[in-house]
Amino acid sequence: MDTRRKLIHTLSDGLFHSGEVLAEICGISRTAVWKHLARIRTQFGIEIFSVRGKGYRLAIPLELLDPELIEKTLSASTASKVSGLEVLEQIGSTNSYLLTKAAGKLESGHVCLAEQQTGGRGRQGRVWISPYGNNIYLSIFWRFNLDLAALSGLSLAAGVFVVRTLNQLGIMDIGLKWPNDILWHNRKLAGLLIEVSGEQGGASNVVLGLGLNCRISGIHGNSIEQPWTDLATVTEGKTISRNLLASMLVDALIDGLDEFQMNGFAPLVHEWNRYDLHQGKVVSLQAGARCIVGVHRGVEKSGALLLEVEGKTQAYYGGELSLRVAE
User: Fold this and answer.
1) Quick one: pLDDT band at residue 288, thresholds 50, 70, 90?
2) Could you tell me if 9 and 38 lie in one domain?
């Protein structure tokens, strides 16, 4: 464990630690401790308080991700399908990281989590705000024996798997917004990003990315350009272990990917429509410069959105389409 990680790990309990104790733990001078903490503030955006006579502490305690603990709490079924699990301290994007590694013949079932993303991405190139050590940034590489056309409902299926997991933790009133947003009281709690490569008629490589807000401070929340929420708000401050949550999500998504390989999205249509927040409402669908307004009639077994326009129902597929409730 490098010095920077040792300092963050020691301070993660949110208690005061003197410069002398921190120096002894890391085997460096007190001046070096001060310099490292200054770099940590700058590099990771972590707020650290310094009080004369008491030492240093984090503004908010952090539960850092522990790959051994996550692996230990996976179900036996999931563990047998996970080819590797790594936790990175800071990365541009967990999805981009796995996409790059996949080119070198990464094995299916590889899981990557990160404490922080510096270039996290949502759909249509949007930035995903990623404070250090607070949220879930998770990507899974999976190789399907399905062609590209058969994967059209995958992001919707993944949304259902995430909602099931949150429900198991007692988090209710969760809804889905087509094609890949997870909301609570119409505020974004999580988002999915599916990136696919392959050839028509052949096997497909998929990186499934999930960003889930566990706790976002005001300074980071001010940068988000849409209504949002986090688990700290939803649970009214009840603590949910990030390691337990990560393990449960890996369990649900790995088993779900395996299930999707066998059955596709069709068995999940009814469940998706039950969670769909906009079904029966007038919505607008942005397709480039074109805006289509109609009544949302749910989704079909391919994952396509069913939109009733002037009495006729048509199917629309994801990609670069953006759904909004019509004003």
Assistant:
1) confident
2) yes
